[in-house]
């Protein structure tokens, strides 16, 4: 396959034509397939010819040239398009390659990815190069273009400048603007983001909202301003309201919102009969949540809820491709499409028996092929985290009266600190911990207290965060320092320390936020870490998402950011960061 990722050259197109003319043999023929005919909304019997990475023929005929052709008789089995994940956050401990390998074995071969981590970590030109070069892998990667950091950064304006956004939008690999977490600013008159939305429209690309709890009035305004789709419906009624307003509705099943079955049940009760403008997403769930499946798990839930199987599979493939204007490449079993195909034992079993991605066997008769060579992240500046500076106990000074209290995994509110934060240790008879955000370059810090994370966490440090800065949490300042030093020694990761000893750790040597390990290994490591945190009193669904969202200002009510403790509603810094 050429490096141009599905932009076939004239020479390639002529070879595809030559296969039909009987001058070249196809690479693979799936004989006697019953396939999902998305155009006619039915199951159809046919032979499917594949040449290299592309479907070249679907019909009754067999090729006249078969020298070197692999002919696979799949009579009695079903072929559906490779599943598409339209809202991937491919940096949740895993990386795009390891996520691609794991998810594709379960049928998900295309990913529309968040570019935020690349935007924050790399110059725009290097980020764009990675976004293109990842498509040398057997999987298909498209990308979003973020408009803001969803935090308060010291260099926000220069990062998300009009010039940088235009460079992103000009890329054929960038498929949409968003997700639009800064929509309240837009409604309140932020013309900078509105201008970026208009630039996205000029580039002929979609805009995805992020509109949790939005009223009909708010949704209508956002539709008028350019939002096409939203994935934040939390009930069947909210999903139907989005459909009524003409929005494509992305139903979510994730580690912090595992409620797809209830939403589908409610939609059916309200009277949903057509699902052409409904799509599925797992919204960047953490590794352990994917243990039971990825998009295939969502299809399985839909089938259990009595959704017509054709609708269920189209919500995971064709509907997404059509929404993004990519149905000429993806989401159909038809000539000209990329050879992303899932072979099912039965319609009721969406986890495929065999998977083809760009014409390569990813899984064959239940056996997953070995992953290819690791993607060369270090060539793009995404190597181990080098912390060429030290913390000392002098940095562990706490004087703020405004602490942060966790309401759930991702929501934090202010609370008034009453205990003495000058002590070296806090008691275990309450759930308040020391809490710090420290610049990854060691130039500044923000110190406060965190209530609700756990009663018994002595020292905890993480280089995994939404901004790439260091999070420290714990009852003991010395154990927090020991946890930080272990993260520094590992060159990135998450560490839990007690009485000076490491209890659990997860190594993240790609930029401090990603691991080169397989998703299968990460599942076990994440589960082990979560188990130890739960033993010490972590009460919510997902501690990894808690780490990710402590600095995220698109959520209420108070956040720890590079600028300091930030009041989301009032849009003010309550206590500024301190230079070290």
UniProtKB/TrEMBL annotation:
Q: Adenine deaminase C-terminal domain spans which residues?
A: 410-571
Transmembrane ranges, per UniProt, are none
Q: Identify the keywords attached in UniProt to this record, alphabetized.
A: Hydrolase
User: SUPFAM superfamilies attached here?
Assistant: Composite domain of metallo-dependent hydrolases (SSF51338), Metallo-dependent hydrolases (SSF51556)
* InterPro entries named in the record: Adenine_deam_C, Amidohydro-rel, Metal-dep_hydrolase_composite, Metal_Hydrolase
Swiss-Prot/TrEMBL catalytic activity: adenine + H2O + H(+) = hypoxanthine + NH4(+)
Protein name listed in UniProt: adenine deaminase
Q: What organism is this sequence from? A: Fictibacillus terranigra
